[in-house]
Each structure stands twice: as structure tokens, then as C-alpha cells.
Write a structure and sequence with these properties.
4 copies of one chain form a homotetramer. Chain A is α/β, with parallel strands linked by helices. Chain A is built from 14 helices and 19 strands. Chain A has 3 domains: 77 residues, Alpha-Beta Plaits, CATH 3.30.70.2690; 86 residues, Beta Barrel (conserved putative lor/sdh protein from methanococcus maripaludis s2 fold); 232 residues, putative lor/sdh protein like domains (Rossmann fold, 3-Layer(aba) Sandwich), CATH 3.40.50.10690. A 7-stranded mixed sheet of chain A has the order 5-10-8-9-7-6-11, with no helix packed on it. In chain A, helix 4 packs across helix 14 and helix 6 runs parallel beside helix 14. The longest helix of chain A has 21 residues. The relative contact order of chain A is 0.10. About 8% of the residues of chain A have low confidence. Chains in contact: A-B, A-C, A-D, B-C, B-D, C-D.
């Protein structure tokens, strides 16, 4: 039932990351590989050569996988001639036409390999058998003419990975760091243009799995590697997601919370006064109710002495922090120079605050950073490499910044945190809103 | 039951937009005003002076409104002395403390006005009666000490709008255009940090109202001013929102659709192959299924001759364009230089495409631009000023760009279009996902 | 030599901000106005009416100004009929054609006002005298035909400001806050698409003026209102601008510096090791020299005891902080939870750090925030309203965030901080790089 | 004089891209490698193992390189025990302390490998010899105490690359595509926080090299692979860089220009009227001079018949397009639906416009995209894979979008295009501004 095929690839496979990307793609597709032959050369000036056997669940899956690998230069070992079909109308290609990449591409005809002129992405290859020798060219769809002989399928088509732009080590231009070729792959995981329902489902699955692992370790156990850390910024409240995050805490999806004075203040402001920075968060009217609301909340808390005291006094009866207190979820609030007040629970000494955070990261297996820059970077610096980390922010630059600081495992989600947390809560079973 | 109060404001009220902002805020709060006296001076060098009577639904609403107006420099006409209360603990202010702005602020004591030293936002004002004369200073919350006399309420507090930074007309620095003071108001409507459920509700209400107006005009009537125009970019499909937009079309919320080759291709690709740019949009696996999917879709359409023909042939059975064809919603697809193919329905001549769009804008009362830059700007250029326009994009710069091009009525919504359209459909009654 | 004209405007002038915008534009253009008549009505339901006399430096300047005001609905009081000229070729308008706005527009013909059909921006108005009655329509340039009678100039053209979209106070939709109409003006000052040489020149002029004022106050005096505050983030160093900022300090353009551990560490790292976060900042090779450079720098400073001690020991001999120490420019380094180390000079208690900043803001007249979010927001919260503030950041969302927090005087500059500071130093006289 | 060392690495080297990254870094540093032994296993479930000999220019360079490789898990083959030194003061580490990564790390003591507890980035490792067995822990700088034994250097330190988070192919979570680990590398090339002078120098060197190659091919020859393509958006003019780009054309650095109606119109508007979208681009005053300037320019050009005719008539005497006409640099102006006018030279049929662009891409070796989205993506789709491409935009999302569309060779530069082009002209020899 499973299907196999032997493929080969030639070129500067290692230092252009090509081999790695190809093997990665095979595994990502649920297939597996066996390396039959591998010659990496011995220096970076040598060409490499690899022969692989790929095995997939069935013929269809295999064919689809091979087609997607082919664009990276992984070619069938045993090629027959390319198949040709005539276009049956002007501007329309035969079904199954070979769609080009922007790499140099050759087609096998009469046992010989022939390069197609004018490489261009997303075109077809037309073979002209009336020239001597036979010639091939890259043709955009709208310029094909009825009767043109078009390559179909990808048998007998060979993609040549580009020459490395990197100069030899002793030349000046080696300084460029090789950013070029890997660029195409670089950014795909932080783009905002991904199906968001899938991303939500993935994060939901992680939170659910972590909660299950916790449950299995018994009532008392912290459960090594099953804790979920949430780092939350004020935008979680401003965008109306505090109630959803509070629900996540109540349902046991959150093990520990890191935040700053701003998040805590606005969460309490929303809970007590129904506003965030003076703007209504759930009523129909986004009008101002006084810019000083957050100050009054801070002042009241300072009088009460602590958030816990406010809960015990019945003054605070909902919201994220309320649920944390109720559920025994530890909270670390780290101070910053922009804080108003601050709340009595805020650790104003930043070295002590970071130490308090350090004490809480043991056993964390999933970290969810929600619209926080400062505390998210601080947390990223503290976490060991294996922690599954999701950074949710509407601003792509924030996600980039987090990554540039060395948080290798982070998965960037460029989206609206308000709608994201809402959908996350729904995906985890929240009803009625 | 309604409550009134007379207020006054002095300063450069007109050219600093202060009067306008204040009147705007009164109306936005559901209150009304009567101008009792207005002296704008006659030249831009004169100070202005205004006396207003404000009327609100009740004492509470009035007090809340007046407090929010006060921060802009609209003071009570008849001031008593400021009320003072002692702080009862270090670092804690009396309830009802007056929260400062960053403007110069004076307090009335013993019938005299006294400026508070060191203006700073979000602080309190402490009066020292032991000095001679009596003095007032701005104090951050944590530095108040037990027994300090703190101003409470805003009676007897007067905010002085800042001097205009603008120089006289004959000096060089008049060139700056006065960007300074209006800055605080400028960006508040395009921030991503707003409660998103409210924004969704507002757009939903607009779409519903327009549909109702259409229904009332009878079966055949287009209904002047009741049409809803949607401009959609490819990210609508990439982020998984095509099914929700299709539902909006099916339910009659959309009267006309503008898009490009990209949106149409990916919508059809998603409908026929379940992918968008080769990425699965609804299954669990965001892996590649071949980069050429969109080309195959375009090629098939070119063979079929048109999207309508594809629907009639039973080849296309779902998606946004399918629903448009079914519901008789006109679609204008404008070409661009980056198009693959293009689809046979695309108007490749851009002047003709814009003319086709022009024919469809009559009667449009609501325009919804979804993650589109090129077609949104083109549409914004065509619409008359009265059209209620919502620009939804995750990228704030796109929204800014749209505004800079002169689309005065646009309301910018910085959010994830995928989640936004999904929530919009839910708000309008979509169930079951 | 100066020229005058009487204009009038009708509509909801105040609560739509129209009057304010118009008066603002007059002053910004270096002209002046006299209000001859003003009737604002008494409530927000009344129409307003204003008559203004505008005076400019000459006929050309006046005409240009009036033309730009006209698009906002400020019309000549005494209108003659509109002037018409025939188009002399298909698709080409007569010189001087009237260019439309997207507002409803009327033209005066035979003493009567006639609305042009199909309002659309950036078009011409064509009058058809063969219809009965005479008709006018809005025509895009490419659709004008030879012989069409086209309105030229703007005499006899009347722009009608749009009806306010705001509902009456007692209806639900009044909640929207009127974001609509002000949108066109909102974002223009934070766009990245402005001539940058002008912006640089403006900031340079401010710094120069402040330095001159300081010089005039004599050797010892701090000079009330002449101090320049710089708030700097790490990107100043990463982008290679530290040497330029150091030059600004050395030349006396900076009076006080606020920053965090990151900026200070990277400035010292660049000065001592020539790298920033391990990346070379001035050599030809942006390759890594070890990620731990900043840690070694911090550790050395901790051993030395303070930045001043490092300067005195001859260990630190260049850079921004070195120049500050040398020039006696006070520096406040506020701690944050993400800090490595931190440096011994960092005030780790954030409440104490903010208090230290408070002590330094007296006398500040210009604030320059360079690629800093946290410290810029903290500083914005402390500054009184009159301080001229420039926020330089490549990320528009950061500038928006700063504004949303209430820093009303901020002028946002969306640009590359590295290139900006470099150009600023050149504009202020730096040579040789 | 050159220095060598044998290293080894174990783990999932291929599918985690680790081997590729390490080899890449070696070559980027100007060093070379020889693979002595390589065992990739045969399936993706096997561990890999590699032995490399690395050769660098000298001992210092080698040591620095090895240290930077070590953080990725490339360890010395022959390890002695780790060296330890006592801390000589609280909160201060010995010079040369080993700075940790966030990976699991072991130290060799008494011939045995010992894992350090609590892996955390940017810390030190302290060994406690008083415990039995001896223990090691990760300690942040501020928590080290005088006398603590700290690991110095990286001999005897082994970094263990993290376990792959990827599940086996037959489990559901294999769907995630492996975004995790490559994240740290993904975004580093598009960050805005890079030394900009270096980036400018690099692009300048490319343009200079291409011009030299052109010069060497003789007077008449187009010179295969020596042409420089510039794609320019309107922001080039708005930000004041048109004069600099015009200079680049005049000096022979540009071989072909792609743009749209907007860029061309604003370039001509700036040349003829000194404004861009009505805003002055070089005078001191950024005030409005009439929104219709660009329409008048378009209309004049339509009357003149073409840009070439306008140059020949002496109507257009400066600017980018003027210089292109003068220098015989081909220009392709592609139409779009948002165009006003358009200019007579604009190819309004987008399929024909793309074909005209296709004809010009042969021989292009360097492409410089300046603040253009639409035309940059269109061009990226047409270019073969080997072309060195620089995308300059202030908006990181635009650069990402370009990359997501498959333009693999693109090097993203997030900066202000106005300042960038100015600096580029200066770097290539422009004087006098």
C-alpha cells in the first residue's frame, strides 16, 4: 500500500540548506526517507550528490510529495523523456502542464537534456520540434498558441538549483552572510496571511494536551513539563479578551501568569468599572468615561493592600487576576518605568522581578505570549530551549524582535489578540458569547 | 430629569480645534449644548471665549461628561473653592482625588487661583497651607504622605489649554502645519487596541441596516443608498475567511464585489481544491500540496471561458464568486501587472476596469474593504464623500495609506481579516462553525 | 501688495471640525483671517454659517490658498457664473480645468446653481448645454471628448460639505464618536511618506535654537525652557548611529539622556568592542563575533563599579555615555525585567527610576525619542504639555501607541533611526563620514 | 599561519538544519571546512553524527569562530576538563566566563560530563564541588557570589542541540511543518535593526560592480548579466529621493526602470512644480499647494503626447524619467486600476505591460525594488532565480509579502527609502547636498 521512489539531487546541497529543506519537507508531509548514497564532498567548494528513497502512504501521496520536492531540485533518478501535449486553444494549456519555478530547468527529449530558455516562475515549457536542434522555452499561459507542444507532468523535467551566490572565503563579498537563498523560507512562519482557524486549533491542542498531562500526574503534582505559562500585555484587555483569558484560567488551561502593572490594572479596571483605559469594553458605547479610571483602581488597590486582599474583601469578583487568585495560579507582576501607581503587588525592583519569574519557569512546557513586548522578551530570555512558545501580536515587528533576541522555539502568530483569545476560548469549549 | 450646567473655555479655541473637539465630545456622549456666548475674536492672534450650556440625561451622566470635558480646558463657570481631603496613608490618595492632565492647572483656594507646580499627567494635586502664600504641587500617587491635603473632585480646578506652538504667519516656523496639538486625536481611530467585539457589532449593524433598507424598496428596486460594496483581497482567502464571506453574499448582505485576479483565483482554488496558494485552508494540515494549484485553476477557467460558465457547468459549486453568480451580485475583477493567467473574467485594461467599477458605485451606502490595498485605494478614489467606509487590514500602514489618499470617510480597523470576517458572519447570524 | 477676499461657508462647521481646519490651514499658509460674521446656531442640530475675510501676501498666494480651502467647502461669497472651455482633444482637458473633490459640487450657470452628477474625486466637470435644463456631470480625464464644455477655475463652483453622518443624540448610533470625518486628517502627520530632508531640517532647527537659548543664559544657568532631552533605545546603536549621537552630545545639543540597560550596554559594547549584540557596527563584515560580547561588557562594568569609573580608568574612551560623562550631561538609566546584568548605573527599582527622571524634566523644551518604546512612553507620561516632542521610529504602531497614551504634543517621524540620526548630525554640521 | 581544529556534532543534524547552518557560518566567516566523517543515518528517526576539520586564517580567528559555532552544538572533539575560576566579588564573574545558551549544557569535570541545572540563556555555569556528586548550575550574573567556582572558556563545555519537537510521521502533530526551530534564523535578515551604513555599502558595491562589468563589454554591448533593474514606487518621490535616483540614472548605475503611473506622475510633478501630491519636496514648507497638481501634470503630458515628447519640447528638464529618456534607459510603466489619467506612456493593459517587462529582464543581474509593492511583486515573479535582489521598504510586512510569493533571492532592507537612496547616492560619489 505504501509507495516508494528513488530521487537524486546535485549541487551545493549542504551550505545552501537544500538537502535539509528537502528532508524536512519529506518528514513534514508524513513520509519517510532512506539515504542511499551521500557525497557532500569534503570542502565547501565541492558539489554534493545525494540519492534518496522516499516512502509515502500511497501512490497519490507520493506523487504529490515528489512534485512539491521537485521544485527544490530533487529529481527522479530514472527519467524517461518528458511527455508533451498540444495546446488545444490559444491561451489555454493542456491539463497537467508542468508549472515552472524560477530556476534553470531542463527537459529530456530523445534521451538528451535541453535547457528551457528564459526561466520564469509559474509558466509552462513549450518545445519546438521544428528547430534544429529541438528547442524549449518558458511561456506564460496567455501566450501559448493552439498546437504548441507543452510539457505535461514532471517526468523528464530537471530543475537545477541555482549556483551559490557566495564567493570563496578569501574574497570580500563573502561578508554577506548568505542571506540570499534562505530568504524564501525565512518569513513564511510569521506571515499574517495564514488560515487562522488552523493556528487557533494548534494552540488549543497544545493547551489541552498540557492540561491532560497535568491531570494525569495526580492531584498534588506540578507535573514536570506540563505547565502552561501565559504572558499578557494590556492589549488583551483593551481588545476585549480579558473575559476569555479569565475563562482559560478558570478552566485550568493556565498554570502561571507573567504580566506588568498595565495588564493587571486594566484587567481590574475592566472587572470593576467595565472600562479599559476609560473605554468601555463590553457595552455598546466606546466613549470615554474618564481617563482617570485606572488611577482610581490603582489607588483603591493600594488602600486594600493587595489583589488577594481585594478578592477576599469581595471588592474584586471577576477578571483574569481574580481567577488566578481563586485557582491558585501564581502571578508575577514585574514593574517598569512607565507604571502609574503602581499596584501593591507589582515587584518594582526589576532584578527581583526577573528572579521571581525564574522561580516559576521550571516545568513549563508551553508558553503563550499575548500582545506583550517587554515581558515576552524578558520571559523568552529565561526559558530553556525546549519550551513550545507562541507569540501572538498584531505587529509583525514585535514578533521579529522576539526572534532576533534568540528565542529559537518561538512560533510567531501575527493576528489580532482580541479575536485570537476569543476564538481560542471557543475552540477549548467556551460557550455563550 | 435632565441636568444642565454652564461652562466656559478660553484660549485659542478655534485654530487649536479645541472648541470643535469639545462640541464633538458632547454630542458623541448623547448630550446637547447651547452656545450662550461666543467670541472668536476676529483674527488668529486673538483669544477666543465661549460660554456653553450643556444638557445631559441626568446628574450622573452630566457629571461624567463634564469631567471628561474638563481635561480639554472646559471649566465650570461658577467655581467654588477646590475641595481638599487629607491622605489617610502614605502612598494612597483620598477617594475622588482629582487626576491631573499634563496641562497647566490651577486650583481655587480662598477665592484665588493658584497654579500647581510641575504639571504631570495622572498625578494628584497637593496643597500646602503652611507656606505663605499657600502653594500647590503635582504629586505622583506613590509620593503622597499621610496627612497631605489633596484636591478632590474637579470643582475649583481650572485647566489651561496650552499656548499654541504655532508662530505668527510671518515667521518661518509657521511652516509646520500645526501637527503638534492635534496629534493626540489623530491616531486614536486606527489603533489596533480597541475592543474588537464592539467594532464587529458596529459593522454588522451597518450591513443589516442597509439590507433592511434594500428590502423595503421592493423586490426589483436597487434602492438608492442601500447597496453594500465589498472590496476583497487574497488574504481573505488565505486566512480562511472565504466561506464566511460567501455566506454574507448568500444571505444578501453584499450588493457588489470588487476584487482582483488574486482574490478570485484563490477563492476558486479554495472552493475546488481546498487550498489557497497551495496551502490547505480548512483541513488540519497546512502543508504544501503543490505550488501550481492556482495556475491549474486559472487554466481550467480559461478553458471553460468564464466563471459563470464554470458555475453553469457544475465545475464551481461553492465560494464567494459562486455565491455572487448565484445571487446576481455584480463582480468587477480588475487586472494588475502581477497577475498569473489571468482568469477570463478579469478586465485587463485598467482604464476599462476602473470605468466598470464606476458604473457600480451608484447607490452604494456602505463600503467594506477587506485586506486589499490596490483595489481599496482605487475604490476609495471613486466613491463620493458620503459613503460609510470600513477598511480592515492587519497592517496599520495600509490603513494610513488609504487615508492619506483622501478617502475622508474611512473608518480604519486594524485587525486580522480572517478572524474579523468570521466574527462578522457570526454576529449576523451564521451558525455551525 | 497684500490681497484679500471674502469667503463663506455653510454647514455643520463646528462639530465636523470644518471651520477649525479651515482657519488652521489659513494660518499654516502664512495668511491671516478676520471673521466678519459667525453664526454657529445654538445647538448641535443647527447649521452654522461663517463669513471670513482672508488676507495673503499677494494675489498668487491668495489664489493658491483659496483654491486649497475650496476643497473643504469654503466658497467665494460673490460668485459669477462658472467659466467653461471646450476640450480641444479627446482625453485631454483644458488647462486650468476645475479638479473635483468627492463632495457634492454645484456650478453656477446663468445665475443658477446646478449640481454635478456622480461626484468623484480628481475628475473634471462637463456641462451639457444641449439638455433642457442644462446639466453637469463629473467626468474622469480619459473620458472627456473634444468639444465637451469643461469648467475651468473655481469661480462659480460650490463645494457642499457632506451631511454629518452623526445621528441625533437620542439614537443608538450616536455612539460611534464621529471617527468618520476627521479620518482624512488623522494620519497625515505620522505617515512615512514625507520628504525626510525637511523633517530632519526641522528637528535640527529645534536643537540649534535650544542650544542658542542655553548659550544666552550664561555659563552657569540651566536656562528655563532650553534643555533638550534625548530618550534612546538600543536600535540607535544597532543601526550604527551611536557615533552620530555621541557627536550631538559632544557638540552640546543634548542636555539630558534617558535610556535603559540595553542602550547603555550596546553603546559601550560598540565603543569597546566595535560590535552591537555581537554584530560589527562599523567594519565591513556584519558577521557574528560571539553572542556574549554584551555580557562581557556588563561584567567588566560591574567590576569597575560605574560608567564614570570606567571613563576615569581610561577603559571607556568613546561613545554616547562617554561623551555624556565628559560633558556633564545627566543620564538616567531605568531598569526593566528583560535586562541582562544589569550595568551598575541602572536604577533597578522602577519607581525610583521614574522619580530620577522626574527630577530631570524641569526646563526641558525639546524631547527627542529615538527608537525607544518603553522609556519613550515613560517619558511622555512625565512631560508637561508644552514640550516639543519628536518620536522617531521605523514602526508606525509605536508612534501611534505613544500618541494613544496621551502625549499630545508629539510629532511622529516614521523613519530609519540609524539614517535619521546620521542626517541630523550632518545637518547640524558634522563632517567627515 | 592558518589554524585548524577538529569538531564534532551529534543529533538530528539534517532535518533540524543544524549542519547546514554550521557549514554556512563557517564559510560566512571566511573559513573553510573538511568533512572527515558524516553519518546521517538512513532515516529521519536516526541520529546523525559528523566530524569536521575547520581551518581559519589564524588562532584568534579560529577561536572566535569556534566559539560562535559552539552555541549551535558543534563541540571540540577532544575535550579536556572545563576550566574553573573563582568569582572575586559578589555579582561579578571572572573574565572569560562561559556564557550560556538556552540549550541543555554539560561540563566535563574529572573526566565526566555533568549537566548544568536550569538551562537559561546569557548566564554563567557555577560548579559546586562540595556536593557529592559534584553539581553544576546555571547562574545569572547578579547572583554569583564571591568564591563561586565559575566555568571559563568553552573547553570542556558541551552544548546539546534540543530534541526535535517534530513527532513521528504517523502522528497528527507532524502537520506543523517544523516552524519551530528555524525561527531563530528566519527573521534576522529582514530586521530593521541592522547597521545601515553597511547595508548601503553593500548595495553600492553591487551597483558599482555591475556598471564596471557593463563598461568592460564595450560601447555597444548590453553585457549579459550586468544590467541593473530599478523598480520604483511613489514614496521615492514623496520622501524626497527623486533627485538622488535621477543622479543614479545619469551616472549610469541604472539600466532599466519599472514603475507605475504614480511614480512617473509624482516624479514629473516634482520636476515641473516642485511638489509631490501637492506637498513641497525641497523647499522649506511642506504645506499644500493644491491637491490637483498631479492631475494638471498628467493632463499636460496627455496633451504633449508622451514623456519623450515633453523632454524634446523642453517642457520636462529634470527628474528620474527625464534622465532615463536622456540616457536611453528603457522605462516600462505598467497601469493599475487606481491610476489617475493615466499618463500617455502607461501601458494600461496589464497583460501587455507584463509582457513589456518580460522583454527587459534578460541580462539583469541586480534588481533594486524601492518602496514598491505591486510592481515589485510583479517583477519578482518574472525574474530568474539568480538575480541579486534588494527590496527596500519601511514596512516589514511588504518585504515579507514579497518573500512569501517565492522570490527566493530577495534581500530585505527595512528602512526609510528617502534616506536610503540619498545615502546610496552619496556612497556612489554624489556630492553637494
Amino acid at each position: 500500500m505504501s509507495a516508494r521512489e528513488v530521487l537524486r539531487m546535485d549541487g551545493h546541497l549542504v551550505d545552501s540548506l537544500l538537502l535539509a529543506k528537502v528532508l524536512d519537507a519529506i518528514v513534514a508531509a508524513g513520509a519517510s526517507y532512506r539515504i542511499l548514497e551521500l557525497d557532500l564532498g569534503t570542502t565547501n567548494l565541492d558539489q554534493s550528490h545525494v540519492r534518496l528513497e522516499v516512502e509515502a502512504a500511497g501512490e497519490v501521496a507520493l506523487e504529490r510529495l515528489l512534485e512539491s520536492l521537485h521544485v527544490h531540485g530533487l529529481n527522479r533518478e530514472d527519467s524517461a523523456d518528458a511527455a508533451l501535449e498540444p495546446a488545444d486553444a490559444d491561451g489555454v494549456l493542456p491539463d497537467g502542464f508542468y508549472a515552472t519555478t524560477n530556476f534553470v530547468t531542463a527537459v529530456r527529449l530523445g534521451g538528451h537534456w535541453l535547457r528551457a530558455a528564459n526561466p520564469e516562475m509559474d509558466c509552462a515549457i513549450v518545445v519546438d520540434t521544428t528547430t534544429d536542434p529541438v528547442s524549449a522555452r518558458t511561456v506564460p499561459m496567455h501566450r501559448v498558441r493552439r498546437g504548441d507542444m507543452v510539457v505535461v507532468g514532471w517526468n523528464g523535467v530537471r530543475v537545477e538549483p541555482p549556483e551559490r551566490p557566495r564567493a570563496r572565503p578569501d574574497t570580500e563579498s563573502s561578508a554577506d552572510g548568505g542571506g540570499h537563498e534562505s530568504f524564501g523560507f525565512m518569513t513564511s512562519d510569521v506571515s499574517s496571511e495564514k488560515p487562522k482557524a488552523l493556528v487557533v486549533a494548534r494552540v488549543a491542542a497544545s493547551l489541552e494536551a498540557a492540561r491532560s498531562r497535568r491531570d494525569q500526574t495526580g492531584a498534588g503534582g506540578a507535573g514536570l513539563g506540563s505547565r502552561v505559562l501565559v504572558v499578557a500585555g494590556p492589549a488583551v484587555v483593551h481588545t476585549g479578551a480579558a473575559a476569555d483569558l479569565a475563562w482559560l484560567v478558570r478552566e485550568g488551561f493556565v498554570s502561571v501568569l507573567f504580566a506588568g502593572n498595565g495588564f493587571a490594572t486594566h484587567d481590574i479596571e475592566a472587572a470593576v468599572l467595565g472600562t479599559s483605559l476609560g473605554v468601555s469594553v463590553d457595552a455598546g458605547a466606546p466613549q470615554e468615561h474618564g481617563h482617570a479610571n485606572h488611577l482610581r483602581v490603582i489607588n483603591s488597590l493600594r488602600r486594600l493592600g493587595s489583589i488577594r486582599a481585594a478578592v477576599e474583601a469581595g471588592w474584586l469578583t471577576s477578571g483574569v487576576l481574580y481567577e488566578c487568585i481563586r485557582a491558585g495560579v501564581p502571578v508575577v507582576l514585574g514593574g517598569s518605568v512607565r507604571d502609574d501607581g503602581p499596584l501593591p503587588d507589582v515587584i518594582t525592583d526589576t532584578v527581583r522581578a526577573a528572579d521571581a519569574m525564574r522561580e516559576q519557569v521550571a516545568g513549563v512546557s508551553v508558553a503563550l505570549m499575548l500582545a506583550s513586548t517587554l515581558h515576552a522578551i524578558a520571559t523568552g530570555n529565561l526559558l530553556p530551549a525546549g519550551v513550545e512558545t507562541y507569540c501572538v501580536d498584531i505587529n509583525q515587528a514585535v514578533v521579529t524582535k522576539l526572534a532576533d533576541r534568540g528565542s529559537h522555539q518561538a512560533f510567531g502568530i501575527v493576528t489580532d489578540v482580541g479575536l485570537f483569545v476569543r476564538e481560542l476560548a471557543v475552540a477549548l469549549g467556551r460557550r455563550g458569547h
